[in-house]
Amino acid sequence: xxxxxxxxxxxxxxxxxxxxxxxxxxxxxxxxxxxxxxxxxxxxxxxxxxxxxxxxxxxxxxxxxxxxxxxxxxxxxxxxxxxxxxxxxxxxxxxxxxxxxxxxxxxxxxxxxxxxxxxxxxxxxxxxxxxxxxxxxxxxxxxxxxxxxxxxxxxxxxxxxxxxxxxxxxxxxxxxxxxxxxxxxxxxxxxxxxxxxxxxxxxxxxxxxxxxxxxxxxxxxxxxxxxxxxxxxxxxxxxxxxxxxx
Length: 246
Description:
This protein is mostly helical. It has helices at 2-13, 21-32, 37-53, 58-74, 78-98, 104-120, 122-127, 130-144, 148-163, 171-184, 189-201, 205-217, 224-245.
């Protein structure tokens, strides 16, 4: 009887069923094709099903959070941004407890807070202490792997310095971080687009125009869905630059 009880205890202590590599590859392939509504629907359905079976699987949790952030980033409705951002944030806080050494949910958790903050506004963000929560997660991601997803943690930090209200805003530090990402990942169109906005805000419209042209003329092959989204965002930035240069 004691042996049976010991065996049961050992089984209970083992980690839950891990998603098969084939499944994870399939999920990533669907995410890569997220410009297609059918791929998004299949990805949502598969993640929901798999997470019901394995709710503590880190690999599934961070991929679900990644999808929420992507959807939040593209949402025009502030309420939807808030909901999706909070869902990503909560999932990542759960996942970090499972794998604290991993970068994915440190970074995605920060971006979840970021899009949530965009939805609720600057005053509520500062009043509720979201700035500290964002930086805590993002700084951890930068420490683990600043090159994750083509320098995305550094990109988020640069955007943070851009988005802050005066007198906390630091355009020089923002540009420095974007340039650091571009030096290593020149194909990253979002880095060029964000740098253009920072340069424009810093009264450097000519340099901003150079960066936005790199977005317009750049290849999206590195990540078609991301590249196309950024090129669409760049149209508004280009219009502001043109207005400034008139």
